[in-house]
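Project standup — Tuesday

K.O.: blocked on the structure for the chain from last sprint. Re-posting the sequence here as requested.
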Amino acid sequence: MGVRFEELAWRETPIGLISLRRRRDASLGVQVYEVKLDDEYLMSSLFPVAEIELARLGLAPLAGQGLDVVVGGLGLGYTARTALEDDRVGSLLVVEAIEDVIDWHRRELLPFAAGLAADPRTRFVRADFFAAVADGTGFDPQAPGRRFHAVLLDVDHSPRNVLHPGHAAFYTPDGLRRLAAHLHPDGVFALWSDDPPDPDFEAALTAVFRTARAHVVPFANPLTGGESANTVYVAQL
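H.V.: unblocked you, prediction finished:
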């Protein structure tokens, strides 16, 4: 038998059934961890390259120490874990709408993300990232109006392919301006996308930020035997 599945955790949520599963892929000789929303795949440990690059590319333009960073969407933890590997990061606020996803990390169900929850720089906030931007409350309930040096976002599949219709307004110039209000001067917003670079979204970014660039991040795809790619947008005030 080539593949065996184990459901590690699951929960009904307002947007559907979220589940974490582990499978043994005998053809690749690895344990694969996957997050699904109903029957839709959200992320897999087979393809972590762009989630890792989201943190690296997003933090690269910043100078100085004691950086305050927000990660929107926890998932398998690759982006948050990579951010903590940068010793310039002084605090990491992880905004995640689903408590169970936070619990996966507190219980250390994901071996490659071990230490994320225990790191003293990390704090989890159970909240809707998009609602926090739209209503102006900000990301840190303990410090209203707090600004950050970087916001790294990985929730939707792309600016055009969102998980909930209510997210779409975020990807407009008005939505991005509301996000920018939570950044320090020279602060960075970085976004993961499963789609190729989108000229319309790049135009929305340049309407708000001083610089904006779409990085194509290629990676080996063991399922196809070829190469696939994601996009990481990086915009700086």
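K.O.: great, moving the ticket to review. Helices lie at 49-59, 78-84, 99-106, 129-134, 173-180, 199-206. The chain is about 20% helix and 40% strand.
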